[in-house]
Amino acid sequence: MSSCWPGGPFVWAVGELLRTVSPQKNDGGGIQLTEAGMISGLPRHVACVMDGNGRWAAQRSLPRSSGHAAGEAAVIDVIEAAHRAGIEWLSLFAFSTENWRRPDTEVDFLMRLVQRTIRKHSVMLYARGIRCRFLGHSDARIPPSLVRDIDELADLTRRNTGMTLTIAFDHGGRRDIVQAARSLILNAVPADEVTEETFAAHLPCPDTPEVDLVIRTSGEQRISNFMLWQVAYAEWVFPPVLWPDFDAAQFWECLRIYRSRRRRFGDVQVPVRMERI
């Protein structure tokens, strides 16, 4: 059984989280804060930057493709763990607009891996009541057969009312913001009517709530152009484990870390003494 990052068994990680979870239901209003500013509920929206596949393979003298293939198990483990935990929204960063710069052989392998994963697990996702959708996937270089599989999975699960799983595939946060600006212009929205709310309504998948927690594996600490608008006030956790070794125990540990944070959103939760100037 895998140990829990940064140490300890799976049962400890789950037990520590459940010991401190508020009995109140997370009813769509996101997290609740106590008077002390502590998080009393689970994050509504968790996003993962799945980093470290290449390094995992290099450590084992394997080709990079082996690392990507090994990462599939972590994807399913995290989806299952998030679903069991009651997370409402889970977003996974699978392929960025910048990833097209990689060697053609690696890009081709990733396209085939995504297609295989969709076909292999679509029934499970449907049975779990998970709604699946893809953020991005607009580049003409994506194989037509993969586009069909993406559209079919989204259509198959669109009436599901459980967790929403968003796969950011051929995604770039800057591109999303540019697309929203273009949409505002094309719809002739007057400048004085452009607010944060109206701007967000023109983003792709506009019903997506703001991200509460971002998990980036491998210890790297970068945003990497991921959901730039939605992660504005997210908490970040950077477990050192490489993505293929990330599992349900480590996911629960990240939730526990999140719950130990104080979220202020620019406010002050406790009186602050200000010195005279």
Automatic annotation (TrEMBL):
It is an enzyme of class 2 (transferase). Keywords: Magnesium, Metal-binding, Transferase. Its cofactor is Mg(2+). It comes from the Bacteria. Substrate binds at residues 52-56, 64, 68, 96-98, 100, 102, 216, 222-224. The active site is at D51, N99. SUPFAM superfamilies: Undecaprenyl diphosphate synthase. InterPro entries: UPP_synth-like, UPP_synth-like_CS, UPP_synth-like_sf. Homodimer. Belongs to the UPP synthase family. This is Isoprenyl transferase.
